[in-house]
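Hi support team,

I've been running sequence recovery on a batch of backbones for a student project. Most finish fine, but this one hangs at about 90% for roughly twenty minutes before it completes. I'm not sure whether the input is malformed or the queue is just slow. I've pasted the structure tokens below so you can try to reproduce it. Let me know if you need the job ID as well.

Thanks,
M.K.
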């Protein structure tokens, strides 16, 4: 995996492991990403997940692949 997305991925994992979906309801991180558990995931984790998806998409997009992901 490209190193540019690795930090966001790690941040997403840490956020999800602290969420009520994993800690209280004892779901796996993968289960928490499903739509039926969306209410148990904090907005912060959802925004990190969106950033991670955009990062991954940017690595595949041929127009951005050579320029790299845009820094915000």
């Amino acid at each position: 995996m490209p190193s540019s997305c690795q930090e966001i991925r790690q941040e997403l994992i840490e956020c999800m492991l602290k969420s009520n979906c994993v800690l209280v309801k004892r779901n796996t991180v993968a289960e928490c990403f499903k739509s039926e558990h969306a209410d148990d995931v904090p907005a912060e984790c959802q925004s990190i997940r969106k950033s991670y998806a955009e990062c991954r998409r940017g690595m595949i997009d041929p127009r951005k692949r050579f320029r790299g992901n845009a820094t915000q």
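--
Follow-up from support: It reproduced on our side and the slowdown came from queue contention, not your input. The chain has five helices and no strands. No action needed from you.
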